[in-house]
Automatic annotation (TrEMBL):
Annotated protein name in UniProt: Response regulator
Localization: Cytoplasm
Keyword Transcription: yes
Domain Response regulatory: 2-118
Superkingdom of the source species: Bacteria
Source organism per UniProt: Shouchella hunanensis
Record key words, sorted: Activator, Cytoplasm, DNA-binding, Phosphoprotein, Transcription, Transcription regulation, Two-component regulatory system
């Protein structure tokens, strides 16, 4: 994922960049210090994601979000701010930013925001059509699963869980734990652990399928 940083304080921008370099498959491709420079560089580089500060010297970051969408329709935006005003937060929600981070930012919180952006980008890129389940994974996740996923059980990684969700979504005829594990490079045991977790939070179901020979197989479907 190619990321751009829009932050007028070069020291803070450096901290953001240092954080991002610790994350896998994240590349900082440009940094801007003003709103006008942000629009220009987004148009030029077409980043996947922009970390956009609210208080830029020439214009509020939140006021250029629509212009960024115009020059880069597929860009995702994480708004970063020291502002706690309800009006700015409400406007950010209306503009469709993917996350809203308040300074000072903890690394783990930034990591979580980046992983969410990666997961949603991957889901849209790999899905040939928008199903209700895919739409629900975007719009209902906060409502339905926030309490269940605040603390994931031991052995469940959030990013891997998103991969399993997406792969399971593609299986119209169901899939075994072993077959799914091969798709994301995990053992049958690991794959089944994630699948059973999805069942526990009402996102998947399983049924025994009886073949002509051999033992019945446990197959999984996305709800």
């Amino acid at each position: 994922m190619n990321v751009m940083i829009a932050e007028d304080d070069y020291h803070v921008a450096g901290i953001h960049e240092k954080f991002l370099k610790q994350l896998q498959d994240i590349h900082v491709i440009a940094k801007a210090q003003t709103a006008s420079e942000t629009i220009q560089l987004v148009d030029q580089h077409q980043p996947d994601l922009v970390l956009l500060d609210v208080y830029l010297p020439d214009q509020l970051g939140v006021d250029v979000v629509e212009q960024l969408y115009e020059v880069a329709p597929h860009v995702q935006i994480i708004l970063i701010t020291a502002a706690t005003e309800k009006e700015i937060f409400t406007e950010a929600l209306h503009l469709g930013v993917i996350d809203y981070l308040i300074k000072p930012i903890a690394f783990e919180r930034l990591k979580e925001a980046i992983e969410k952006a990666q997961a949603q980008s991957n889901q849209l890129r790999q899905s040939p059509r928008i199903t209700q389940a895919l739409a629900d994974s975007f719009f209902l996740r906060v409502k339905d699963n926030s309490d269940k996923e605040d603390e994931l059980p031991k052995g469940i990684d959030r990013l891997t869980l998103e991969k399993v969700r997406h792969l399971l979504q593609e299986q119209q005829d169901g899939i075994t734990a072993e077959a799914l594990g091969k798709q994301f490079g995990a053992s049958r045991t690991t794959s089944r652990r994630y699948l059973e977790y999805l069942i526990s939070i009402d996102e998947a179901k399983a049924e025994l399928e009886y073949g002509i020979v051999g033992r019945p197989e446990r197959k999984y479907w996305k709800l």
